[in-house]
Structures are given as C-alpha cells and as structure tokens.
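Input sequence (470 aa), recorded before submission:
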Amino acid sequence: MSSRRSETDILPEAAAPVTAPLPAPRALARSGWWDTFKSNAPVPVLIALLALLTPLIEQREFAYYGRMVMLVGFNVILAVSLQLINGFSGQFSLGHAGFMMVGAYLAAYPAMHHSNRMADPASTLWFYVSLGVVTAAAALVVLGVFLVVRASRHVASWLPTVLLIAVAVWVVVDLSQGSRHEDPPARFVWSRGIALVQGSFDWLIAHGGPAAAKVSEALPRAARAPITFVVLLVGAGMCAAAAGLVVGIPALRLRGDYLAIATLGMAEIIRIVIQNSGPLGGALGLTGIPRYTDFTWLYGFAVVTIVVVWRMAYSARGRLIMAVREDEVAAAAVGIDPTRQKVLAFVTGAFFGGCAGALFAMYERSITPGYFNIAKSIEIVVMVTLGGLGSLSGAVLAAIVLTLLPEVLRDFSDYRMIIYSLLLVFMMLLRPQGLLGGRELWPRRRGPRAEAAATEDRDDRQQAAGVASR
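Predicted structure, token format:
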C-alpha cells in the first residue's frame, strides 16, 4: 500500500477553513469598550492640562498675547468645522459666517435675558425648547405651502414656478404693509402669523419659566453656571444646525459655483434678518453679554471639535461622504444617497460653527452684525484652502498662521495687508494643494486594522496554499 495519500483523502481536509477561531461575543464586547476607553482617554487628560494653563494666559501682563491665543482658538474651530464641508464632502460653502452668527446671537440673547446671570440652566433650556416648538410649528406651515405649490406640477409643468413667484411677492408685500400697523388687520396673513408665533413663544416662556426656575434652584449653586454655559453652547449649536438643515436641503442639490452663490446668499439673508430684528439689537447688536468663555472652555471645545470631526471623517460614514466628493454619480450608482451625505456634513459643520459663535459672543461681551459679513466667510474658506482640502491638521495649522500673520506684520502698518495678500498669492502659486495637501500630522486611524473578511476567491487561494504545503 502506497504511503502517499490519494487526492480524495486530501481534498476534504483542504476544504476546511484556514482561519483563526472568532473570539467569544463577551470578550469582543469587553475589548471594544476597552479600546474605546483607551482611544478617548487622552481627551479629558488634555483638557485638564489646558485648565492648568488658564491662569497664565489670563494674566494682565499677557493680555495682548492672550487675546491672540483666544482668536486662534475660535478660528481653529471654524476652520475644522468648515473642512468637513469643503474638504471632505467636496462642497464649496461661503456661508459659514452665517452659522457663526446664528450661534452667537442665540447664545447671547438667552444669556442676557433668561439665564439669570448664568445661574438658571433650566430656564435657559426652556428658552430653547420653546423656540424649537414654535419654530417647528411655523416650519410645518411653510412646508405645507411648499408641498401644495409642488403638487401643482401635476396640473401643468409651468404652474409651480408661477405659484412660487406669486407666493414670494405676496409675502414681501404682506410683511412690508403689515409692519405699518401695531395690530395688523386680518388680510395681512403672514404678518399676523409672525405675531402669532411670537405670542406663542412669549406664552410658553411665561408659563414654563417659573417651573424651570424651581428646577434650577434644586441644583448645587457651584454647578449652575457651568451647566448654563453648556446649555447655551449646545443650544446655540443646535440652532445653527437647524439653520444649516434649512439651507442645506435645497442648496446642496447644486454644485460648484452655484452652491457657493446659494450659501453666500443665505448667509447674507441671515445677517440682514438679524440686523433688522429689534429684540436682537438691530444694527447696533448686543452688549453686556455675560462673559464666561475662557482658555479652558475654548480650547477644550476645540479639542472636542477636532476629535469628533476626525472620527467622523475617517469612519465608515466619512468614507461615504468622501465617495460622494470623488464621484457623485458613481456613489449614487452603488446605493449611496449623495444629498443625505452632503446634508449630514453640512449640518455637522454648521453645528460646530454655531458653537464657535456662542463661545465668541460670551468672550467678547458685545457683538454686531457687521462682524459676520462676507469677509469673515471668505477668511474661513482661505484657512481651509491654505491648510489643504481634506486635512484637519492642515486646517489647524492654517488657522494659526493666518490669525497670527497680520499681527506679525503690524510693524508694516501702511503695507501690512498688501504683504499679507501677496504672501497668500505666492503660497497658492508655489503650493496650490495647500500646506499639507490631504495629509495629516497624526495617524488617520488608531490601533491595528481588522482583518478583511474572507471572500470566495480568498478561500480558494487559502485552500490551494494548504494543498501545496502538504
């Protein structure tokens, strides 16, 4: 009898999978929690170290340099949040200053009138809840009108355009004529509707405010101010995210220059509406805002922004967003919804832009509509482009350079902006991809990568290798 085994003896053994056994589900879950803890542990440690530097930064003899450091922090948050929109999703937004403005005003106003000098977090939260309720009700009415106009295309293809123009003219005439009356007559439907929304908001504040104040009194006194600040920060960011959703759903169906014009126009609409709003101070803005932002809060939130955007950009969700950036048609062909991915990036970037505005308002103590103009939007876009599209570390580096460069050139007072502009031009000519291009100064992923799942071709190769080794 031959000592060599026949082919029929070999094949069943070769067909067995040559893979390591999977870990038990409980061990896998324990490993996942431990990896998550290790990955996030440096964040609170870094924030604690920042708290140790706060007394040094806020010394009077370093007031000038301390202000420069704070301005760098604001611009880092703005640049990193816009990088998610312009760099990773491939959109060209020129309206980031509008979201910053929404966050600044909708943190400053409740801080002045509803926070009881940063000591009433529940009333501050109730302000945002009331604002959300009345805004949602008004949005449903506007959405109903839009759906009716859209449904008219079944009657005639040209009818929605005509109805949309007619509704726009109706709204403009109604508001312009209704503003001349303290109590607009019934024929001014839109003016009375706005008055109804404002009255509903005042009713909710009046009836829910006392109960909210009692909730705040139950909290420890030392915890009221920081909790109020967090509520203001998150609430302002959510308001900016809602504005980003309203802008993003219709505008992100556009591309390139058309999207840039649309976002720029929406940012100007936001600025003009706030500039003509009496409760928000009008053209004079708001003054006497409680100051609570310091070095720890600002740079702690900057660290959180970088970590969140980094994790989002280099996750599976980020791959979907970048797939839309590379080829929108091909992404749609494999089942990715381009509009959904772009709106997600847009809303997330708007949220962090609004938080930057809230931090800025509660640091400066006074804000005016003129600060959040087109020039501010372009400045943020320049930071993103100079750092390199698709590079978070590049956005951070460019924010630092472009914030400090005008101060470095202050000795050339007459020619400072000329030199500043020429340096930007030369930089774009010599390195059009930006300071870092699409590279990062830190790893894009943490820990070892998981082994790729076995495919049919890979199983065949493993079986062939097993036969050959025998």
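Checked by second reader. The radius of gyration is 28 Å.
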